[in-house]
Specification:
The structure is a homodimer. By secondary structure, chain A is mainly α. Chain A has a single domain, classed as Arc Repressor Mutant, subunit A (Orthogonal Bundle). In chain A, about 50% of the residues lie in helices and about 10% in strands. The first copy, chain A, contains six helices and three strands; from the N terminus they run ααβααββαα. A three-stranded antiparallel β-sheet of chain A has the order 1-3-2. In chain A, strand 2 and strand 3 form a beta hairpin. The termini of chain A are far apart. The mean pLDDT of chain A is about 85. The interface between A and B is large, with 54 and 54 residues.
C-alpha cells in the first residue's frame, strides 16, 4: 500500500486517522467498546459482511498497535476473547465526536419533510 | 465494495466513519481545513503520494456528500478552488479528537528513552 501521508499535517492526527482508514477497524473497536469483551465468533456475528480471515487479520493488527488485547482463559475448554486496551478505549472520544458529526451528515443527506400547508392534510371539500 | 456496517452500532457514528474509512478523505478535509481553500494543483502538492485521478474522484464524492464545495470564479482565466462547506467544517471536532488520541498512540509506539543511569553518560574512567 502506498503511504498516505501529508508533510503538512499533524503526525498525531495522521497516526489516528491511519487506524480508522483501514477497513473495519473503527467498527471492530466500537463493537468491543460497547460489549466490553467478545469471543471471536460473537464479534464476527455483529459485523455481518466480514469474513473470518479479514477479522483475524484486523485483530492481529490492532493487537500489534496495542489497541486490542487477546485474553486467554485456561480451560478446558480454553476460552479466548478480545477487549480494548486502555489505549484502545481512548478511541471513545473520537467515537463520540464521530457520532455528533455523523448526525449532521445524516441529517443533511435526508431531505427535510415537505411543508407547504404546515404538514396538515387538506380537508376534503 | 461490500457494505461495511453493523446493525448494533449507531448509524450516525457509522456514517461519519464511512467517510474517513475511504482512502485520503480525512487528509483532504484536514488540508482544506488548514488552508481555507486551495486550487486542485496546490491541494495535490500537499498530498504527495496521491494521483490526479484519485484526488478528482475523492473531491467529487466529498462534493456529493455536501462536505466540500467547488468554487468557480469567472475569468479569464477561470479560477477553480475547493473549500469545506459548513458541514465539512464540522469535521474539526473529530479531527481534534483524532489528534489527542493519536498523540497517545504515537507515544505508545515510541519506546521510552533508556533510563539506567538517569540518562547521564558515564564519565570516562
Amino acid at each position: 500500500m502506498k503511504l498516505r501521508r501529508s508533510d503538512h499535517l499533524c503526525p498525531n492526527f495522521q497516526a489516528a486517522l491511519d487506524i480508522l482508514a483501514r477497513p473495519w477497524n473503527g467498527l471492530i473497536m466500537a463493537t468491543l467498546a460497547d460489549a466490553g469483551s467478545l469471543r471471536f465468533s460473537a464479534l464476527r456475528e455483529q459485523l455481518a459482511a466480514m469474513g473470518d480471515r479479514m477479522l483475524s487479520l484486523r485483530l492481529k493488527e490492532l493487537e500489534t498497535r496495542g489497541l486490542v488485547e487477546r485474553r486467554v482463559s485456561p480451560g478446558p475448554p480454553v476460552k479466548v476473547d478480545y477487549a480494548l486496551t486502555e489505549l484502545g478505549r481512548g478511541f471513545g472520544d473520537v467515537s463520540a465526536a464521530l457520532g455528533r458529526w455523523g448526525q449532521r451528515v445524516n441529517a443533511a443527506a435526508t431531505p427535510p419533510p415537505r411543508r407547504g400547508n404546515g404538514g396538515r392534510r387538506r380537508p376534503n371539500p
